[in-house]
Amino acid sequence: MSAILTTALGGNHGYRLDGDSVHLNAEVTLAAGDLQDGSAWSLQLWASADGFAEQAPAGVKVAEFALQPLPGCFVVDACVAALPPAGQAAYAMALMLVAAAADGSVVVRDLAVYPTPQLFLQPQLAGDVACRIADGSAEITVERIVNPRAADNISGTLALEVWALDSPYVGGAWTGTPVASLVLGQLAGGEAWTDCRYTVPAVAADGAALTVMLREWTAAGYLTRDYRQLPALAAAAPVAEVAPVVVPAKPAAKKAAAKKPAAAAPAAVSINSASVDELAAVKGLSRAVAAAIVAGRPYATLADLKRVKGMGPKLLEKVGAGLKP
């Protein structure tokens, strides 16, 4: 007489992160009686900063592998795309055996919680982060942008995005209004960009609580790696009317010669947003070098201009006063 099968995970199971992929390994048993309603079955790996208090999905789904709905015992050994949560928290991890019905309802048939918290090694924002929006522009400042991976593990293309979200961000999917964005480039493992300051076009976001996201290009598209939630933008305070103060004039003993006002120094132009014409207008900067600056964007600091063709240390020292990041 054959034993009655019970739908469950077996005693052997686990996961292993490998860059943008995750390896799933598990013994799985599916009972024939549980397959008759036509549900779709899958193995899912979840990450939760708050743990798993009950047998239900919680946090962010990191990976999923679809199972054939066939009765019996079998071993799953699969490598699938990893979509880890954003942020730098230590996450509880759980492997779930899930049945999704045609009406969209989801039932977790079995769950295994792993005892060791998981840290996801990915590009991150470090130190102070701020964003100021005025006159159609966003001024974004980040103390440091860090790639903590191994030296030979260069990041995908990184980007900063500013969003006005409908609800506080928790590291997974979100809904909201895009406010500003810029592409930063790739960052080598173990390296960091410091004192980052960017000015980019932006839409109005008065009264909104902003979230600055650091996103990385992967085979699955841009993924959010880290984020900072900023206070709501305060509306500009009205200027109070002040009554003028009249000071009696002193008798002039002798009319002093009027001094000619000093000429104002030209404003520095941004190496990350100025046009070729604006850069070429900087005294000492040729149009060819200006075009090379535009082609080599973005730059974290003025010192990064040394990699631009035609820009040596002496020229950078000469024109540096007319430039800003």
Short description:
The chain is mainly beta and 325 residues long.
Protein model, in words:
The protein has 325 residues and is mainly beta. The protein folds into three domains: 111 residues, Sandwich (Immunoglobulin-like), CATH 2.60.40; 109 residues, Immunoglobulin-like; 56 residues, Orthogonal Bundle (DNA polymerase, domain 1), CATH 1.10.150.320. 6% of the residues lie in helices and 45% in strands. The chain has three helices and 16 strands. The strands form five sheets. Strands 4-3-6-7 form a four-stranded antiparallel β-sheet, with no helix packed on it. A hairpin with a 2-residue loop joins strand 8 and strand 9. The radius of gyration is 29 Å and the shape is elongated. The termini are far apart.
- Mean pLDDT, to the nearest integer, reads 84
For the largest beta-sheet, the strand count, sense and barrel status come to: 4 strands, antiparallel
Count of individual beta strands: 16
CATH fold label of the largest domain:
Immunoglobulin-like
How large is the radius of gyration? Answer: 29 Å
Secondary structure: helix percent: under 10%
Overall, the morphology is elongated
Record the strand order, biggest sheet.
4-3-6-7
Tell me the distance between the termini. Answer: 77 Å
Question: Please, how many domains?
Answer: 3
Order of helices and strands, N to C? Answer: EEEEEEEEEEEEEEEHHHE
CATH class annotation of the largest domain: Mainly Beta
Based on the coordinates given, report the CATH architecture of the largest domain: Sandwich
> Any low-confidence stretches, pLDDT <50, length ≥5?
234-263
Q: Give me the secondary-structure category.
A: mainly beta
